[in-house]
Amino acid sequence: MSESEVDQAAEVEGGGAVVEPAVVIVEGTHEGLAAARARARGQRLGGPPTMTAEQIRHARDLLTPPENTVSSTARLLGVSRATIYKYVPELATRRPAVEPPTARAELGSARKPI
C-alpha cells in the first residue's frame, strides 16, 4: 500500500483530518481499560435489562399451568424464548420437550413382525 493510500484510509469521514492508526488503537485500549475499571468498581455495563421484575413475575405466573408454552408467553411479553429462559432459569430443567414413553414395551408393540 502506498503512502497516499494509507493517508486516504486513515481519513475521518467528512472531516478530512488524518488520524494515525496507532492513535485509534490507543484510544480503543484506553476505552477497554476504563470499562474494566468500571466492572471492578461494580458498575453495571451494557444495555438495560430486557425484562422488568414485574414481567418476570408475570412470566412465572403464566408458565405455572403446564398447557402454557414458553413460546406463547414470550410472544405475549414481547421478548424472545431465550430471554424467558435467561430470566426464569428454573424452566430449563422443569419441562421435557417431548413426553417420554411410559414403558419400553409400548415402543415394541408398534413394530410389525418381519
Structure description:
- With about 110 residues, the protein is an all-alpha fold.
- The protein folds into 2 domains: about 5-40; about 55-95.
- It has 7 helices and no strands.
- It has helices at about 5-10, 20-40, 55-60, 70-75, 80-85, 90-95, 105-110.
- Helix 4 (about 70-75) crosses helix 5.
- About 5% of the residues are buried.
- The model has no long low-confidence stretch (mean pLDDT about 80).
Characteristics of this structure?
114 residues, mainly alpha, 2 domains
Chain oligomer state? single chain
Question: What does the radius of gyration come to?
Answer: 27 Å
Number of domains: 2
Stretches where pLDDT falls below 50 for ≥5 residues?
Answer: none
- The DSSP helix count reads 7
Task: Characterize this entry briefly.
The chain is 55% helix and 0% strand. The chain has 7 helices and no strands.
Compile the SSE list and pairings.
Blueprint: H1 3-10, H2 21-40, H3 53-62, H4 70-77, H5 81-87, H6 91-94, H7 104-109
